[in-house]
Amino acid sequence: MWGGAACAGLVAALVAVALLAGVGGEGGTGGDAAPTSTARPGAVTTAHRPPTTAVAGTPASPAPVPLPVPAPPAGLPGPLDCAVAPAPRPLDSARPRYVADLAVDVVGGTATGEVHVAFIPDLAVDHLVFRLWANGPRSLGAGGGLEVTGVGASARVASTEQPDPTTLVVRLGAPVQAGETVEATVAWRLLLPFRADDRVAFGEGWARLGSVVPLLAWEAGVGWALAPGTAGFAEASLAPAADWDLGVRVAEGYEVLATGALVGDRWLAVGARDVAVSIGRFRRATAVVAAPGPVEVTVAVAEGLPDHPATYLATVSDALTSFAARFGPYPWPAYTLAVTPDLGGGIEYPGHVMQGPSAGDGTTSHEVAHQWFYGLVGNDQGRDPVLDEGLATYAELTHLGVALDPAAWPMPDTALGAAGQPMAYWDQHADSYYEGVYVQGALALAALGPPDLVDCGLRAYAAENAWAIATPAGLVATMARVAPAAPAVLASYGIG
Fold first, then answer.
1. First CA to last CA distance, the chain
2. pLDDT > 70? residue 152
3. Which of 395, 356, 354, 352 is nearest to 373 (CA)?
4. Residue 146 to residues 137, 140, 210, 368, Cα–Cα distance (Å)
5. How far apart are CA 464 and CA 413, in angstroms?
């Protein structure tokens, strides 16, 4: 539970992690899979590999929703001074605090867990919503699934319901007013799919557990996010930046990498939206990178894979240094990358990335970019996937020196001008999702001007929206301060 000596010890440990991260006061921390990038413009990669047909039982394909051309933003500060590094928005002192414990049977492909969370809503609530992303269509379709085995809350639980597999609604016996604290506990059992190409999977000697801890789906000033789980190799998630104290128990002989910094036998993270765990027998390479403060980087490759940890380590170190200079300081004191079998591409979490073998420099740098665009700057990934995937792709391709010439990137009709569409649309047009969101999002930014100018805007966007949930309107408003034509240009790609 959240209280007493255990609470005091956790707070002290989290403060230590925050200081390591260079967080001032309450500030300081750090989505989804990145397709393997190509060195030649126009080549479509397959690392995301969304299904080419709609999932059985889904509605008819919706048409793209025309987005109006926004008017130039009014009442904003003047043009950005690109010579001045913007100060990041501070981390909310009322952020959620999670304490979670997992016990994982790697051989049997099962896990049990319990999470306790202290939550301070900024709007009055009479219920809580936890998202159970381990019950998304991909995981269930591969034979996995999560079962809730117990629920409790400080405001008394009146009832619980699951309107769909990914949503747990906890009705409270008494309303919680804005600014009041409510605590809740959820226990669960998890079945991992065998050798699935996804964030939740296990195989001989390894396991991946991404987004298996029930998450509060809260957007400040808005309320609960209820987007359906996506059938694609993507996420439809939203969660506020939070503090985590995570324990993972495995049989002797297995190693664990997870979100956060390892303090004793617990993984502690400040300002992480979600957590992930990779388990295996690993070959490792480590380094300390200045980005700009010291970041401990660990790359672990599962036993039996031919990949070399040092190769990934060099790519991660280079990308961390480059993106910190371009978009602002890396938000955490540690970055871990676990390479495990049966995964095509990579899947990002704050401070921890899961990657498949032979994924390439493009995937590796793409996932590093997600530490800013998803980790530091959050978004509703079901509603606005372009805000994480499009921006991370822009960072990736410009980092690799790949030309962003629209003529070199053919755009399918179902993707043209649809970069701002939600995952409900892309689940029905999975074959054009990569071009429509990843590539088109990057092209939209490149159309605003030279890379230094765009980077200036993105640096300000990252600072202004640090630890928050950003929106397309916010991106447009900030980019208009470096490129006055940004509202019209971005709207032409469907972003606005």
1. 43
2. yes
3. 395
4. 12, 9, 12, 29
5. 34
CB neighbour burial string for 438-461, b if at least 16 within 10 angstroms, e if fewer:
bbbbbbbbbbbbebeebbbbbbbb
Give the helix ranges, DSSP H, for 283-359.
309-327
* 3-state percent helix, strand, coil for the chain, nearest multiple of 5: 25, 30, 45
At residue 377's C-alpha, the angle toward residues 301 and 409, to 5°, is: 75
Tens digits of residue pLDDT in 92-131: 999 999 999 999 999 999 999 999 999 999 999 999 999 9
| Omega before residue 70 within 30° of 0, cis | no
CA distance 346 to 36: 8
What's the pTM value of the predicted model, to 2 decimals? 0.86
Are 131 and 214 in contact, with CB atoms under 8 Å apart? Answer: yes
How many other β-carbons are positioned within 10 Å of the β-carbon of residue 178?
11
Strand boundaries in 281-351, DSSP class E? 282-290, 294-302, 334-339, 346-349
Note the maximum CA span of the chain: 62
User: d(Cα 477, Cα 467) in Å, to the nearest integer?
Assistant: 18
Cα torsion angle, 329, 38, 280, 381, sign: positive
User: Is the predicted pLDDT of residue 392 greater than 90, yes or no?
Assistant: yes
Note the pLDDT tens digit of each residue in 66-100. 444 344 444 456 799 999 999 999 999 999 999 99
Tokens of 493: 């790609």
How far is 461 from 88, CA to CA, in rounded Å? 9
